[in-house]
Amino acid sequence: MEEASSSSEVKALPQHQVFVNFRGEELRNTFVSHLRSALLRHGVNIFIDTNEEKGKPLDVLFERIEESRIALAIFSVRYTESKWCLNELVKMKECMEKGKLIIIPIFYNVKAYEVRYQRGKFGCVFKNLRYVDVDKKNQWSEALSSVADRIGFCFEGNSDENKFINDIVKEVMQALSKIPLDETKDAFVYLSKNTSMSLGREKHEIYGLKQRLEELEEKLDLKCQETRILGVVGMTGIGKTTLARELYETLQCKFLRHGLIQDIRRTTRELGLDCLPALLLEELLGVKISDLGSTRCAYESYKGELHTHKVLVVLDDVSDKEQIDVLLGRRDWIRKGSRIVIATSDKSLLQDVVDYSYVVPQLNHKDALGHFGRYAFDHHFNKHNNEVIMKLSKEFVHYVRGHPLALKLLGADLNGKDEDHWKTKLAALVQNSTQSIRDVLQVSYDELSREHKDIFLDIACFRSEDESYIASLLDSSEAASEIKALMNKFMINVSDGRVEMHDLLYTFAKELSRKAYAEDGRGPHRLWHHQDITNVLKNIEEGVEVRGIFLNMIEMKREMSLDSRTFKPMCDLRYLKIYNSSHCYQQCKPNSKINLPDGLNFPLKEVRYLHWLEFPLKEIPPDLNPQNLVDLKLPYSKIERIWSDDKQKEHKDTPKLKWANLNHSSNLWDLSGLSKAQSLLSLNLKGCTSLRSLPEINLVCLETLILSNCSNLKEFRVISQNLVTLYLDGTSIKELPLNFITLQRLALLNMKGCTKLKEFPGCLDDLKALKELILSDCSKLQNFPAIGESIMVLEILRLDGTTITEIPMISSLQCLWLSKNDQISSLPDNISQLSHLKWLDLKYCKSLTYIPKLPPNLQHLDAHGCCSLNSVSNPLACLTTTQQIYSRFIFTNCNKLERIATEDISSFAQRKCLLLSDAQNFCNGSDSEPLFSTCFPGSELPSWFCHEAVGSVLELRMPPHWHENRLAGLALCAVVSFPDSQEHINCFSVKCTFKLEVKEGLWIEFCFPVGSWSNQGNIVENIASEHVFIGYISCSKIVKRLENQHYSSSNPTKSKQSSTCGSTKASLVFMVIDHTTEIPRIEVLKCGLRFFKGVGNSGSYLKKLEVKEAEQNLSAEKVSENWTIGSGSRCNRVIKRRPELRQEIVTREVAATLKEANNTEIQIKIAPREPQPPRPCSKTSKWACFACCDFTSMSNGRK
Questions:
Q1: What is the DSSP letter of 813?
Q2: 250-260 pLDDT, tens per residue?
Q3: Measured between alpha carbons, how far is residue 1102 from residues 37, 262, 919, 1097, 1167 in Å?
Q4: What CA–CA distances, in Å, run from 959 to 118, 851, 1036, 1095?
Q5: Which pLDDT band holds residue 1184 (cuts at 50, 70, 90)?
Q6: How far from chain centre, in Å, is Cα 1100?
Q7: What's the rounded Cα separation, in Å, for the pair 911 and 1137?
Q8: Cα(749)–Cα(761) distance, integer angstroms
C-alpha cells in the first residue's frame, strides 16, 4: 500500500526529476529511506532504482539520469564496493559537464577529501577493487574527484540526522525553483559522421596523451640507475594533472612501491601541511599514521622499510615550495633508482629540486578539434549544418589555442545549443570569456601578490611588445625578475624577445580591469572599453583611481570635446593611449575625434606612456611633469616645439625618456626641449617638414635617429656619437659634416633620394661598423670615395639611380645595386673575386654592353632592361656547390643580346642544372620557386632539351620504373610570346602543370614554377618580343608522391600496374598567369623538358662535365658530349655542329668533395680527345629519354 501510495503521489509531482545515487546495501533501509520520505513530502519527484519497472536492463538507469535535472550523490564508506554506483557517477559527471545536471554531493560518515583523493577507509575499499580495467578505474577516480570537489553536505554521525535531511531537502527545493517548469531542451546540432575530422566522443581517448607520455618516459629513463626527479609544468588547465595521473597509471606496475598524491594545493589548504607526509607514507607503505611529530621523524621511523624498494612518487598540483620540502624531506629515505614527478603551475618552485623539467605543450589543431568535439557533440550525428558547425568549431579551437580545459568547458557550454548561439558565443569571446573559464584562471590570478597582479594587468596593456620595452614602462628596479616570476607561473611568456600572453589570459585581464571599474572597487583601473573611458572623461571626479586609458577612436561614433580639467584628478595615471586602429597615414580625412576647445591642464607626474594621435595643441602642456615619462608618441600632431619650463627658462628634465616618436608633426621646428633626455634611445622625426636643422644638443644614448622626408632639413648635425641607425633619406642635405667620422657604431646609413648630395665624404674607411649604405636615387652623386682595405663589414651597398662610373670593389659585399645608371658600360673584370656577393642588380643600365665572369656564390642577377647588353662571359659565373642553392638570372628585355650570348646563358643554365642534380641530397625543392631559373630574349628551345613540342602542351610516355632510376630533377622550358600592344603588366609567372596517369583514369597533378617577372620600379614597361624561360625543379616531391601511390619498387604492396611494368602517361601544360589567373594574349609558342639523374652516391661530388671550347675567339663553341648510355636504354640524338669552326674536345673535372666545392672554383683540366660521332635522337618522340639525362652527360651545342 505504501508503494502504491507513493507511486500515485509521484505522478502528481513536478516534471523535474531528482536522481539518487547511493550504495543500496549500506543505506537503502536507513538514511536513504528517511531522505526519500522527506523529499516526497515536499512534492519532489525523486527517482530511486526501486521505482524502475522490474525486468528492465540496468542501462535504463542511465536514461533516468539523463531525464533528471538534479542528482544526489550519497558517498558512504562502502560506496565504491558497487561498480554500478561508480558507473552511474560517471554518467552523472558527463551530464554535469554538459550543463544538463546539477549534482549535490552528500558525504555520509566519510570526509570530502577522502572521497576526492580516495583516502582513508573509503580509499582502501576503492583501491582493493579487483578485476577492473585500468582505464575504467581512472574514469571512476576522475568522477569521484570531480563530484567531491563541489560544495555539498557532510554528516559525521554525531549530529542531528533529521536536521541534516531537512537541510538537504531545502537545498533541493531551492535548486528546483531556479529551473522553469516549462523548460524544453534546445535542438541539438551534430556533425555528420562522414566528416573528415573526428569530432565525436571516443571512449577513454585523451587527445595528445600518447606523445606526451612518450616524451615524459624518455626524460624519466627507467633504465638509468640514478634517482631522477622530473618537473611537469605548464599554465593552469593545460593538462598537467591528467598527464601526471596517466603517467602514474602507466608506470606503477614497474615499481613495487608507488604513490600518487593529488590536488596538494587544496589538501594543504583544507588539512594543513602536516598531513602530507602521512598521506605519502600511507600510499607507499599502506600504513595508517595518526600522529606525526615531524616530517623528519616520519621518514626516520620508516627509512629502513622505504629503502628496501625503489619508489614511484607523483605529486600533483604543488603550489608552494614548502609542500615539496615537507613531502620529500631530506630525501635520504629515497632509494637510488627511484622516480619522482612533481606537477606544478609555478616553475620557480622546482629550482634546485628537479633534474629535468617538462613543459606540457598546447594541443595541436587536430587534437584540439577532437578534444573540443568530445564535449561539444554527443554520439549522434546529423548531416544538417555540418559545414557551418565545422567552421565554427575550428574558430573556437583557434581562439583557445590548444588549451584542453578551456576546450572542454567551451564544448560543454555549447553542447546542445543551436547555430545562432554558437555564433553569438564566438563573437562575444574576444571581449568576454565564459564564467567557467574565468573561474579556472582566477585561481592562478588570486595566488599572485598585489605587485604581481598589477604587473600582470599592466603587461596585458602592452601585449607583444619587446621585453626590455615593457621592463622600462614598469619602471621598477626589479622589473626583470618580476617578469620572470610571471613567466614561471605561466601567466605570460617571452617569445623572440617579445612578451606574449595567451588569448584566454588576455581577455581575462581586460575583464578584470573592466569589472574593477564597474564595481568601483579599490585599486587602479585600466580602461579599455570606449564607453567606460568616455564616461570617465566626461565625469572628472571618476578619474581618481584610473591607472591606464586605452581609447581606440574608431569605436567612437562621434567627436567629443574635453574639459581642460579632465585629467587633473588622475594623479596616478601611468598609461594614456588615444589612437585609431585604422589610421590613414595619407591623411585623407582627420582621424582624431578628441577636441580641446579650452586647452588642457595636464598636471601628471606618474605618466610613463603618452600616445596621442593627432594631438591638437601647439605645445605639450607646460604643467606636465615628464620625470617618469618613458615613451612619448605624438604622431601627426600640431605641436611646434617640445616642452620647456617657461618659469625657470630651462628645459624639462626627462631622465627616463627612452623613445620619442613625433613623425609627421609637420609644424615641429624646435627640438631643444629634448636636451635633457640623456636616456633617449630612439627619436623618430619622419615627415617633420618644418624642421630645418638639429639643435646643438648631445644625446649620449641615442642609437636610432629617423629624419626621413624632412624635406627642408639642409644641414645634419651629429647629436650623438653612439648612433647605430641613421635615416636621412628624402632630406635636402648637400654634404655630411666633418665630424661624421665620429660615428664609430653606425651600422646603417640611409640617404636615399638626397638629390642635392654631390659627393660622399672620404671617411668611409673610418666607419668600422657600417654594414648597410643606401645612396639610391642620389642623382647628382658621381663619385664614390676611394676604398681602402680596412672596409671589412660593409655588406649592402645601394648605388642605384646615381651617376657613378667607377664601381667600388669591396670584398665583404653581399648585395650590390647599380640599376638605373646610364654611365656604366661594363663591370670590373675582377668582380668574380667578390666571393661573398649574392645579389647583383643591374636593371636599366642602358649603356652596359658586357657582363664579365660573375662571382661563384651569386644567387640573383637582374639585368632587365639593359638595352645595350650584347655579350656575356663564358662561363657566365663560376660554378661551385653552395649551401644556398636557389638562384635566378634575369635578362628580360635585353634585346641586343647576340645569339652566342644567349647560347652561353643556356649553356650556363645546363651546367647549373647538372650541379643541382648532384646536390639534391642537400636541398629541398620549393613549390613557389624553382631551384634555378633564367630568362632571356629568344624564340628557340636550347638544344640540350630532350623533349620539345610546339605550343603549350607536351605529352609523352614514361618507361616502366622510370622514377626509380636515380632521378634528381627536371628542367622545364617555355618560349613565351608577348604581343606588341599588351596591357601594362606588373608581374607574371610561367607555370607548368605536370600530370601523371598512375592508373587508367587516375591522374596525379603537380604545379611547378618555371620562371617569373615583376616590375619593382616605377617605370611603366612591358616585356618585348619573345623570351625563353628555363627553370630547374627537384623531383623529390614527384618520387615521394608516387611512393605514396604504391609505385615504389621498395614498397611491398605494389599496384597492379607497377607489378606488370606498365608505362606511364605524362602531360605537361605551360601557361602564363597573373597570380592565379591565366593572362590572355600571352602565348606559349614552344615548350621543352629534360630529366636529370643524380650520382647515386650522396657522399661523392666527383663527376665529369664534357664541353667543347674553341681556341681562337669569342664565338668558339662547346658542341660535343660524353654520352653514357645505360643498359637497356637507347638515345638517338643528333648533335648539330658548325663546320666552319675548328673544334677541340676537352674534359673538365670538378672538385670531388662538398667542402672543396664550397670554397673553390671548379678546376679545369683540358685534355684532347677524339670527337664523338653524332648520335641520332628524335626530340619529338612520345617516349621519355633518360639516356640523355645520365649524370655524366652534357650537351652544349649551338645551332
A1: -
A2: 999 999 999 99
A3: 95, 64, 11, 10, 17
A4: 70, 42, 18, 20
A5: low
A6: 38
A7: 20
A8: 13
DSSP state of 759: B
Of 956, 1062, 966, 972, nearest in space to 1009 by CA: 972
In the annotation, is 3 catalytic? no
Q: Among candidates 749, 751, 726, 876, which has minimal Cα distance to 802?
A: 751
Q: Give the span between the Cα atoms of 281 and 262, in whole angstroms.
A: 14
What's the burial of 436, exposed, middle or buried (CB within 10 Å: 0-12/13-18/19+)? middle
Cβ pair 673, 642 in contact under 8 A:
yes
Task: Provide the CA 11 distance to its chain's centre, in angstroms.
Answer: 60
* Number of Cα atoms under 13 Å in the Cβ half of residue 740: 16
Beta bridge partners of 1029: 935, 974
> Which residue, 675, 590, 673, is CA-closest to 639?
673
Question: Closest Cα to residue 347, out of 318, 326, 322?
Answer: 318
Cell of 73: 550523490
Q: Tell me how far apart the alpha carbons of residues 265 and 255 are, in angstroms, rounded to a whole number.
A: 26
Task: Indicate if the pLDDT at residue 1047 is higher than 50.
Answer: no
What is the model's pLDDT at position 33? 85
Could you give the CA distance from residue 689 to residue 673 in angstroms, rounded to a whole number? 18
For residues 73 and 153, is the Cβ–Cβ distance under 8 A? no
The catalytically annotated residue of 53, 66, 67, 88 is 88
Closest CA to 759 of 742, 727, 731, 736: 736
Pair 1162, 880: CB distance under 8 Å: yes
Contact indicator for 717, 740 with CB cutoff of 8 Å: no
CB count in 10 Å sphere of residue 909? 25
CB neighbours (10 Å) of residue 1123?
A: 19
**CA torsion angle 865 868 869 871 (round to 10):** 160
User: Position of cell 641530397?
Assistant: 921
Centroid of chain to Cα 103: 41
Q: Are 818 and 795 in contact (CB under 8 A)?
A: no
Q: Locate the DSSP E strands across 385-534.
A: 493-495, 498-500, 525-527
Beta carbons of 910 and 1196 less than 8 angstroms apart? yes
* Alpha carbon distance 568, 312 (integer Å): 63
* Contact indicator for 579, 559 with CB cutoff of 8 Å: no
Give the whole-angstrom CA distance, residue 645 versus residue 36. 83
pLDDT (tens digit, 9 = 90+) per residue, 733-782?
999 998 999 999 999 999 999 999 988 888 888 898 999 999 999 999 98
Question: Nearest 5 degrees, angle CA 960-CA 966-CA 969?
Answer: 100
pTM attached to this predicted model: 0.77
| Measured distance CA(624)–CA(653) in Å, rounded | 11
Residue 90 confidence (pLDDT) above 50: yes
- Please, which residues have CB within 8 angstroms of residue 175's CB and are 6 or more apart in sequence? 70, 102, 104
How many CA atoms lie less than 13 Å away from 531 in the CB half-sphere? 2
- Which residues lie closer than 8 Å to 881 by C-beta, 6 or more apart? 915, 918, 919, 922, 1101, 1154, 1157, 1158
Residue 523 is predicted with a pLDDT of 61
pLDDT at 1152: 36
The C-alpha atoms of residue 677 and residue 1048 are separated, in whole angstroms, by: 70
Top-ranked range on mean pLDDT: pick from 156-160, 204-208, 216-220, 1045-1049? 216-220
Amino acid at 885: I
Distance CA 333, CA 311 (A): 10
- pLDDT mean over 514-527: 69
According to the model, what pLDDT value does residue 1036 have?
80
Q: What are phi and psi of 440, to 5 degrees?
A: -65, -45
